[in-house]
Amino acid sequence: MAWVWFHRFGSPPYFYRLAGRLTPWFAWPAALLGFGGLIGGLVLAPPDYQQHDGFRIIYVHAPAAWLSLMVYVVMASSAAVGLIWRMTVAYAVAGSCAVIGASFTALALVTGMLYGRPMWGTYWEWDPRLTSELLLLFLYLGYIGLRSAIDDLGRADRGVVDVPIIHFSVTWWNSLHQAATVMKFGRPTMPASMLVPLLLMLAAFTAYFVALLLVRARGELLRRERAARWVAEALAATPAGQG
Amino acid sequence: MLKFLEMGGYARYVWPCYLLTALVVGLNVRWARASLRAAQAAARRRLASKATP
């Protein structure tokens, strides 16, 4: 019974239609949550007693860092699902993650440097967290490079799938590590006026990522399944320039 | 308002972070849409060329 949804979800035409319908349900909440988080973080939250107004960087830095890791976990697990069950939808999802992940990892690094300069007195420190984030960026870039270097998507999938799997354990450890620091913000010492905007921003970025992923995965599916019969039907259902 | 923009002296660290975030968020929306549109256009062209031999 539980496998029914799995098979349905794995069907490209079903996923293509569902993803199109679901996109606004993630995009609009993301915009609203992000707006609330910005007001809360920039205006309503009081300045930190140690970091003063500089702490407000956290409202963009932490969500970017969170996405950099979450996108990686999604990319690696969907690549693994694609490999094990030979599922086109899973490959399309994995392929859609790379650019999003790379850009948010770069953003996390740069905002982290701008945060580190006033707080620690240095832009960069070879500390494990920063170093692993930099490695993550190289990993994403390597994945993008491999994908664009191999023309045949099927071969690219099989070759590229190793990269996430090899690093799966590392990332898993990393994401737990990062989640722990998110939990740390939840200490009672962080007042709700600071914590709530942070949680809003984290939720906003997560919903935003899902919306991006749905849009990109549809494009990837069309590219992979161009010879399939459903493509003609799906395109006939949406007039040019829409959906 | 000016006091808000000064960010307690941290303006040169805080605002670039927010600007860069807005840039990355905006670009990703653009790239995702462009990627889907390009795939749809390519699929349409393929279908059209098949329909008219």
A few lines on this structure:
The complex is a heterodimer of chains A (243) and B (53). Chain A has 243 residues and is mainly α. Chain A has helices spanning 2-9, 12-44, 58-85, 88-120, 128-149, 153-160, 162-166, 168-185, 192-224, 229-237.
Walk me through the structure:
The complex is a heterodimer of chains A (243) and B (53). Chain A contains 10 helices and no strands. Chain A has 243 residues and is mainly alpha-helical. Chain A has one domain. Chain B is built from 2 helices and no strands. Chains A and B meet through helix 3, helix 4, helix 9 and helix 10 of A and helix 2 of B.
Overall pLDDT level of chain B: 90
| Class per helix and strand makeup of chain B | mainly alpha
* Strand runs of chain A, count: 0
Largest interface: A-B, 38 and 32 residues
What percentage of the residues of chain B does DSSP assign to strands (E)?
under 5%
**Residue windows where pLDDT falls under 50 for at least 5 positions of chain B:** none
**Molecular shape of chain B:** rod-shaped
Q: Report the count of strand segments of chain B.
A: 0
In angstroms, what is the radius of gyration of chain B?
Answer: 22 Å
Arithmetic mean of pLDDT of chain A: 82
What percent of the residues of chain B sit in helical stretches (DSSP H or I)? Answer: over 70%
